[in-house]
């Protein structure tokens, strides 16, 4: 398995896609039921293959990731050629960026001495999707990129 098994909830939400996947493997609903009971290891392998296919599709399309902790924001723009990063560090230990109050403080004070910025970019390794998945495993979530784009605008001015 290249990525990670989808959760039970994700698998339930992707039930129609999973049925289509089994059909491409020439596995009927009845055969799937039998497979789960008689050859659970084969059923597990099918779930792993399906999970990897879904991850490949998602990772190929993802453009923005965010990883926000108490005092740090790591905002990634995943372009065709490289991963771009806006990193924000809040030097006020009272602030938790994950809360509405903490983020509100940040929006009011983003130009103060209590906030440090870093920008960086990094080329992908030989496996671009694995690089993206690594960021997700470290806690990043897929977003539409509004926060990254906001930073891009304020940094340009």
SSE order: HHHHEEEHEHEH
Strand content: 15-25%
The total domain count is 2
User: How many H/I helical runs?
Assistant: 7
Strand order of the largest sheet: 4-3-2-1-5
Number of strands: 5
Q: What would the principal axes of the Cα set say about the shape?
A: elongated
Mean pLDDT: 94
Which residue ranges are poorly predicted, with pLDDT under 50 across at least 5 consecutive positions? Answer: none
The secondary-structure class comes to alpha+beta
- Give a short account of the largest sheet: 5 strands, antiparallel
Tell me the helix content. Answer: 40-55%
Ends distance: 45 Å
Please state the CA-atom Rg, rounded to the nearest Å: 20 Å
Present the secondary structure layout.
Blueprint: H1 8-13, H2 15-24, H3 29-38, H4 40-61, E1 64-68, E2 72-78, E3 82-90, H5 100-109, E4 115-123, H6 128-137, E5 141-143, H7 146-156
Antiparallel strand pairs: 1-2, 1-5, 2-3, 3-4
Q: What is shown here, in short?
A:
With about 160 residues, the protein is of the alpha+beta class. The chain has 7 helices and 5 strands. InterPro entries: DUF6495.
């Amino acid at each position: 398995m290249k990525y990670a098994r989808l959760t039970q909830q994700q698998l339930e939400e992707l039930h129609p896609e999973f049925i289509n996947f089994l059909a491409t493997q020439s596995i009927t609903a009845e055969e799937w039921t039998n497979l789960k009971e008689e050859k659970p290891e084969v059923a597990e392998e099918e779930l792993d293959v399906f999970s990897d296919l879904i991850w490949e599709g998602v990772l190929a399309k993802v453009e923005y990731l965010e990883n926000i902790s108490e005092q740090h924001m790591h905002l990634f723009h995943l372009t065709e050629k490289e991963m771009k990063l806006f990193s924000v560090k809040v030097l006020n230990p009272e602030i938790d960026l994950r809360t509405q109050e903490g983020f509100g403080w940040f929006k009011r004070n983003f130009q103060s001495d209590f906030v440090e910025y870093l920008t960086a970019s990094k080329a992908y390794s030989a496996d671009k999707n694995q690089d993206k998945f690594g960021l997700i495993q470290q806690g990043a979530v897929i977003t539409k990129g509004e926060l990254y784009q906001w930073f891009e605008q304020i940094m340009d001015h």
